[in-house]
Design brief:
The chain has 3 helices and 3 strands. By secondary structure, it is α+β, with helices and mostly antiparallel strands. The longest helix has 15 residues, at about 90-105.
């Protein structure tokens, strides 16, 4: 038996077929005329694709937003990004490293013992 993921259009009332969904299907491998096929057993569950929020890094959280807009950009991202040069702000690695360093410096456990 195996679990496979299948995409399909929603037929639910509020989605009206416009929203993509992903469902997990339990199936088993069988042979038909010498070729491998998957026999459907059950639907395990499904999820709306738009509700899946992939983990965003710091670069994704501030990209395409006004630099001066503190309301939509968290301070722990805005401050280190604005300290970078304009060229470095377009580099995902440099942005993520700057935010990571800023957050590490502000942690109480990273403070040097007195």
């Amino acid at each position: 038996m195996l679990i496979r993921w299948q995409t399909y259009g929603s037929k639910g009332g509020s989605y009206r077929g416009k929203t993509a969904r992903i469902r997990a299907i339990l199936s088993e491998s069988i042979r038909v005329n010498g070729q491998s096929r998957q026999k459907f057993i059950a639907v395990i569950g499904s999820v709306v694709v738009e509700r899946i929020d992939p983990m965003k890094d710091a670069f994704d959280q501030w990209w395409d937003k006004p630099f001066s807009d503190m309301a939509t950009i968290p301070a722990e991202i805005h401050i280190p990004v604005m300290a970078l040069s304009p060229e470095d702000r377009n580099d995902r690695t440099k942005v993520n490293d700057a935010v990571r360093r800023y957050q590490c410096d502000r942690r109480p456990d990273s403070a040097s013992p007195a």
